[in-house]
Amino acid sequence: MGYASKSPWVIHYDASSCNGCDIEVLAALCPGFDVERFGIINTGNPKHADIFLVTGSVNERNISVVKQIYDQMVEPKVVVACGICACTGGIFHDCYNVIGGVDKAIPVDVYAPGCAVRPEAIIDAVVQAIGILEEKSKALKESKKGA
Amino acid sequence: MGKKSIIPFGPQHPVLPEPIHLDLVVEDEVVLEATPQIGFIHRGLERLVQTKDYNQFIYVAERICGICAFGHSMGYAETIERLMGVEIPKRAEYLRVIWHELSRVHSHILWLGLAADAFGHEALFMHCWRLRERVLDLFEKTTGGRVIFSVVKVGGVQRDIDKATLDEFIHVLDGIKDEYEQICNAFLNEPSVYNRTAGIGVIPKADALDLSMVGPFARASAVNYDVRMLGNGAYGDLSDFQPILSENCDCYARMEVRAAEVPQSIEIIRELAAKIPDGEISVPVKGAPAIDSEACNVLEQPRGECYYFAKGNGTKYLDRMRMRTPTSQNIAGMAVALKGCDVADVNMIVLTIDPCISCTER
C-alpha cells in the first residue's frame, strides 16, 4: 500500500468484551500510540465511518445492534475484529450466552487476535484494513462504470 | 409545558465505551425519568466454574473486567484461599496490594480522561491518557501485560518485584505527580469545568445510604465507607488510612474525590514498598474445597466495594461463584441522579458513576 486516498474514520462498538480491548482501542487513538497521524479519527456516527472496530463476541442481545451499525455504514466499509473474543469467542466461547466471534453476525475482513489485543496489533490491523478499503472502493468505482 | 417524549440513549453512543441503554422520558429538555436496560454484555461466566477448576477460573475472573482486572483476580484468589484455609506469605500480600493500588491509579486517570471527554474537553482527555501510559509501562515491565496481567494465582503471586524495580515504581510515580497536579488544576479550578459539573446530579447522603451506593460515588456524598479501612491483607500494616470524602454530593465532588485518591494510592505504594518483607511469594495449594464449605470476601475496587462468594462441593470445581460488583450497586443511584437533570447533562452524570458494564453483567 503506497498511500491512502482518504483519511479513514473508525467507529468502535463493544459487543461483549471485558473492556480490556476497548481501552486498548481507545489507547491506540490517544497520544501514546497516536493513530491520528495516519488520519484516523474516532467517530460516533456509523454513517461517517469507513472502518468498524468490534471488540468482544456477539450474544443474543447485541447481535442485532452489531448488524444494525454495520448496515448503517456506507459502502465501501471494512470490519476489523479486535481481540480474541471478537475473532472466535476466546475464553468465553462455551458460555451459554455467547454465540461466537463477530463473523457469526457480519462479514469480517481483518482479524486482530490478542487478550487483550495490543495497540500495536490494532494499528497493524487498521493499516491492513486501509488497503482493503482502497481495493473495495476501486471495485465499487469499476462496477459503477459498467452500469 | 411541552409534550412528553422518549429519547433512547445508547447502546452505541459516542460517550460510552461500553453499551448500556437508557430510555429517557423527556419534557422540555428536562429528564423526568431514566430507565436503564442492561444485558448487552452478559456472557454468563459465573457458570464457567462448572467446567473450569478453581485454578483455571482465575483467568476467567480476571476477564470479568479489563479495567479492574487485577482487583478481580486478587478478590477471587483471596476468596478461594479463605475457602480452603490457605495462608499466603506476607510478601505476596504486599505485592498484591502494590499492584492493586497501581491499577487504581491507572483506573482513576482513565476515568478523569473519559469525564473530560464527556463534558467536551478533548485536550484534557488526551493528556490524561498520555499520563496513564506511563503507569501501564510499569505494569508491562513487572507482569508482561498492559491490561490483563495473569500474575495472581491461588496461594500467592506468579512473579516477584525486585528492590530496584520497586524503587523505579516510586521514581515514575513521583515523576507523574507534577503533570498530574497540572491536570487536576484544570479539572478542579477551571471555571468552565466547574460550571459544567457543580450542582449537577446531586444525591444527598441519606439517599446514598438508602440506595446502598459504594465507592467514590458514595464517598462524594459523604458516606464514610471504604473497604481498605477494614485492614484486610497488607492494608492492615498501613500506618494510617482515612477515606477521602466530600460533602458536595454533585458531579464536581465525584471528580474531587477521585482526583484526591490517586495521590493517596501513590502514598500507599510508597509506604508498602518501603516496608515489604523478604521471603517466598507463593505457597503450594493442593486438594479441593470441602463439601458445603462457603467463603466470602470484600475488596475495594477502583469503583467501590466488590463482594465475592464461593461454595465448594468436594471437587476441584466450585459449586457456585458469585460476585456483586460496584456498578450494579451504583446504577440505582444513577437513575435517581438523572431525574430532573437537563438532557445535556445526561452523559456527564452517567459517566460520574464510573460505569463498568462488563463487571455488572458478567
Quick recap:
Chain A is an alpha/beta fold and 147 residues long.
Describe the structure.
The complex is a heterodimer of chains A (147) and B (362). Chain A has 147 residues and is α/β, with parallel strands linked by helices. Chain A has one domain: Rossmann fold (3-Layer(aba) Sandwich), CATH 3.40.50.12280. In chain A, 35% of the residues lie in helices and 18% in strands. Chain A has 4 helices and 7 strands; from the N terminus they run βαβββαβαββα. Chain A has a 5-stranded parallel beta sheet with strand order 2-1-3-5-7. In chain A, strands 4-6 form a two-stranded antiparallel ribbon. Chain B has 362 residues and is of the alpha+beta class. Chain B has one domain (5-361): Cytochrome-c3 Hydrogenase, chain B, CATH 1.10.645. In chain B, the strands form 3 sheets. In chain B, strands 1-2-3 form a 3-stranded antiparallel beta sheet. In chain B, a hairpin with a 6-residue loop joins β7 and β8. The longest helix of chain B has 29 residues, at 90-118. Chain B is globular, with a radius of gyration of 21 Å. Chain A binds chain B through residues 12-24, 26-27, 30-32, 43-46, 56-57, 59, 61-62, 65, 69, 91-92, 94-98, 115-116, 118, and chain B through 11-15, 17-19, 39-45, 47-48, 51, 59-60, 63-67, 69, 110, 125-126, 129-130, 132-133, 136, 145-148, 356, 358.
